[in-house]
Q: What sequence folds into this?
């Protein structure tokens, strides 16, 4: 291990440790922190890394390789098929619209049409690494904008395959040989290069399916975790190396490999093994992007590069915002969607390198477009910060969904059911099967429409509103069943009813024991935890499979629920002190287990021929039950 390596590692880690926390402290993303640290230690500021910006990027791109492999692993074909309309709609519209507008911009600049097409397709790409990382940090991955962004990024990642196949057809010369990184495509005709690109991608499918998966099964049987981790890294490195040998993107190859392995039994283990390396290497990638910005080139033509950066951002924003309007995204989500994807992505570095080898774009403009790409990537965290501070507070609260007025209810019954999802509909079906009519309320118009087609008489309306409850006849009803899916909304309903209609009996749904505690604080005694009864039933069935008589197993399940309900009431008072709550819970669990064991011993009789008394005692004491079993 050389001193030079240690000094370089010290520089990278030190810059990251200093810059990233500062960026997070002032409300920016970690991505911007990594980019700034790369600029600071880069060759054009402090010069700690000398003039090796391109070498840094070559190593740092391995972080993108790791990330795209994991994205591929997470992309199950069934889930992809369900998202096909969103991926094709959002993704194709963005790719086509942006590339067309950029094509005309470059034509107006006097470029040849082949050069304009290549540059347009390159700058159309957005950064999967930056966008997904930023959305994840800000907790926006599952928003409408987050899902739309993922659809666009996924389409772009897949579109790189045909783009790489098309580029050789636009070239006037064959791929230029690179002495440092030789390519098997060097010197071949354009049509042969295109065929080899497609064949290389197809070979990954065959190798992954018929070679890698069987090999992983053999390695998994060794039971050595470190061997599986080594195999995961070997797989990623091998695919990346093979793709680079044929002059293609290593990130593209590992993405395809991830998709191939998404349906294998090793999907989750591969993901967990590689994820730690991905985060560290992604940070290195962003630092490499910052260090690779050629400030000397920017100084020579600052106005031109600044204009092109603004033009690219504006064109992509307009196209994306227009797509969001077509697909009826709310304004706050649409701004987030358009601003978040307005940068140029890491695949642009790959495409620019390939177009340089093909001599489609000259080296001077390759350098300028690389600078434009890097600068645009730096703008994303800043644009999202502007959105968060200045745009969302205004557009986020102005656009409110138009509420559909609640239905007029003309019939009143003794029972009102609020919330008719999977939980509530089960209750309603059982009541109706036993001749009990109920007034059913639900605030999801799509759900109401579906239930009506299924034959249920459901009224649309917000059950937390007093006027809606009065319309449903709560003043004369006997029972309210609070079964709304959202624990927060369900709790609000219970509070409202307890305050304004104290006469009515409330039977409330709770997702877990903590929701149950909140409901019990309002005075509700009939609380039903949705996870408790199903879990107990599963345990009862498991006891039956193990040889317990049905009667014995069912009795034990019922007693467990009885003991657990008593413990729930005792623990409610200490739930705000987690330390005391944990200690009290431990004591209650021990008491419950002892009571159930004693009950099983006391209730045992010689008439229970499934087990003998020795087995029961040894099962309770934790000894091997198989030796005591009689058949």
A:
């Amino acid at each position: 291990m050389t001193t030079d390596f240690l000094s370089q590692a010290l520089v990278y880690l030190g810059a990251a440790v200093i810059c990233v926390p500062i960026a997070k402290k002032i409300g920016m993303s970690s991505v911007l922190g990594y980019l700034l640290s790369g600029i600071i230690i880069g060759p054009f500021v402090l010069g700690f890394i000398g003039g090796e910006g391109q070498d840094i990027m070559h190593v740092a791109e391995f972080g993108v390789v790791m990330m795209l492999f994991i994205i591929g692993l997470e992309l199950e074909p069934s889930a992809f098929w369900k998202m096909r309309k969103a991926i094709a709609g959002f993704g194709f519209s963005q790719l086509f619209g942006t590339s067309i507008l950029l094509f005309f911009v470059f034509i107006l600049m006097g470029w040849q049409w082949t050069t304009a097409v290549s540059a347009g397709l390159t700058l159309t790409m957005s950064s999967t690494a930056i966008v997904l990382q930023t959305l994840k940090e800000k907790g926006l991955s599952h928003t409408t904008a987050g899902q739309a962004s993922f659809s666009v990024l996924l389409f772009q990642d897949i579109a790189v395959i045909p783009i790489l196949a098309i580029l050789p057809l636009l070239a006037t010369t064959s791929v230029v040989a690179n002495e440092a990184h030789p390519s098997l495509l060097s010197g071949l005709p354009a049509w042969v290069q295109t065929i080899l690109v497609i064949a290389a991608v197809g070979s990954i499918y065959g190798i992954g399916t018929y070679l890698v998966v069987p090999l992983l099964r053999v390695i998994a049987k060794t039971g050595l975790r470190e061997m599986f981790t080594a195999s995961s890294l070997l797989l990623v490195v091998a695919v990346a190396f093979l793709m680079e040998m044929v002059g293609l993107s290593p990130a593209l190859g590992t993405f395809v490999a991830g998709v191939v392995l998404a349906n294998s039994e090793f999907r989750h283990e591969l993901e967990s093994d590689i994820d730690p390396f991905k985060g560290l290497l992604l940070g290195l990638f962003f630092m490499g992007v910052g260090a690779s910005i050629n400030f000397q080139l920017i100084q020579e033509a600052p106005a031109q590069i600044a204009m092109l950066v603004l033009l690219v951002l504006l064109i992509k924003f307009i196209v994306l915002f227009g797509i969001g309007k077509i697909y009826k995204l709310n304004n706050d989500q649409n701004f987030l969607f358009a601003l978040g994807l307005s940068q140029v992505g890491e695949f642009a570095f790959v495409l620019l390198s390939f177009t340089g080898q093909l001599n489609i774009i000259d080296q001077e403009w390759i350098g300028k477009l690389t600078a434009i790409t890097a600068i645009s990537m730096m703008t994303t965290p800043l644009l999202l910060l502007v959105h968060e501070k200045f745009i969302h507070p205004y557009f986020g609260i102005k656009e409110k969904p138009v509420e559909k007025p609640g239905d007029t209810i003309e019939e009143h019954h003794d029972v009102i059911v609020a919330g008719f999802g999977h939980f509530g509909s089960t209750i309603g079906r059982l009541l109706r099967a036993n001749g009990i009519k109920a007034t059913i309320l639900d605030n999801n118009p799509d759900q109401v429409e579906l239930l009506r087609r299924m034959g249920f008489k459901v009224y649309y309306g917000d059950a937390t509103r007093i006027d809606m409850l009065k319309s449903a006849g709560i003043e004369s009803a006997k029972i309210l069943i609070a079964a709304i899916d959202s624990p927060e909304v369900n709790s609000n309903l219970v509070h409202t009813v307890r305050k304004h209609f104290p006469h009515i009996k409330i039977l409330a749904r709770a997702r877990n024991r903590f929701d149950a505690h909140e409901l019990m604080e309002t005075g509700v005694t009939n609380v039903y935890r949705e996870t408790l009864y199903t879990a107990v039933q599963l345990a009862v069935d498991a006891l039956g499979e193990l040889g317990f008589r049905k009667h014995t197993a069912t009795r034990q399940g019922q007693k467990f629920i009885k003991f657990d309900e008593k413990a729930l009431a005792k623990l409610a008072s200490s739930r705000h002190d987690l330390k005391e709550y944990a200690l009290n819970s431990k004591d209650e669990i021990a008491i419950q287990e002892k009571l159930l064991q004693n009950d099983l011993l006391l209730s045992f009789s010689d008439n229970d021929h499934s087990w003998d008394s020795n087995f029961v005692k040894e099962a309770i004491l934790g000894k091997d039950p198989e030796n005591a079993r009689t058949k």
Remarks:
- Strands lie at 415-418, 438-442, 458-460, 479-482, 505-510, 526-529.
- The chain is about 70% helix and 5% strand.
- Residues 175-180, 397-402, 608-615, 623-631 have pLDDT under 50 and may be disordered.
- The first helix runs from residue 3 to 25.
